[in-house]
Amino acid sequence: MTRVAIVDYGMGNLRSVYQALAHAAGSEHGLAVTADPAAVRGAERVVLPGVGAMGDCMAELRRLGLVDPLREAARSKPFLGVCLGMQALLERSEESGGVDGLGVLPGRAVRFPAGERDSAGRPLKVPHMGWSRVHRPRSHPLWAGIEDGTWFYFVHGYYAAVDDPGGVVGEAEHGRRFAAAVAAGPCFGAQFHPEKSQEAGLRLYRNFLNWDGSWP
To answer: Residue 48 is part of which domain span?
Structure first.
């Protein structure tokens, strides 16, 4: 049985995610990069990575027959969505002219507005690219051993505007405070890239591998 299915829909930085998970696990055993709906359904836990545009993402997930298996997995087993993979879990995104997501997490992805400035009045670029502190408004098992305010690496032009603030488990700032991590039951979404976030990211992956999916 596959322990972790890393979903391949042609848009994720799969090698980096795979290597980070293997490092966190101490072994490649049980890790599988797959586009097979049956493998996603049969895995113990699922990681949905992603880099690119939401319209292309959802089109590929539909083409590969992965939409329903991913929805089922996100509601029934430990599930981690990363960057675009997190945004795909939302109900809708403004990107690509407006596109429906998987609808697992309530909310939508919206673009950072132009003209935003940091606390010193300096103009901010979009996409948000680089290291930002993640603060935790509430606890979650994936934060075990990770200090509040830890730096994580981000690359994104859209952010999650969530309907239920009780599901926001991490916040960061880029001109405005935004949801850096969201959770619902066994599903956790990270807007940042754990695989690019050095030891803190590896710790989060390790926590995910040991998590039983319980929350809150």
So the answer is: 4-210
Average pLDDT over residues 34-59: 96
Q: Hey, which residues are catalytic here?
A: 83, 193, 195
**Residue 215 falls within a domain, yes or no?**
no
**Residue 21 lies inside a defined structural domain of this protein:** yes
- Encoding tokens for residue 47? 């990681």
Q: What is the pTM of this model?
A: 0.95
Residue 216: inside a domain, yes or no?
A: no
Q: pLDDT tens across 103-139, in order?
A: 999 999 999 988 788 878 888 889 999 999 999 999 9
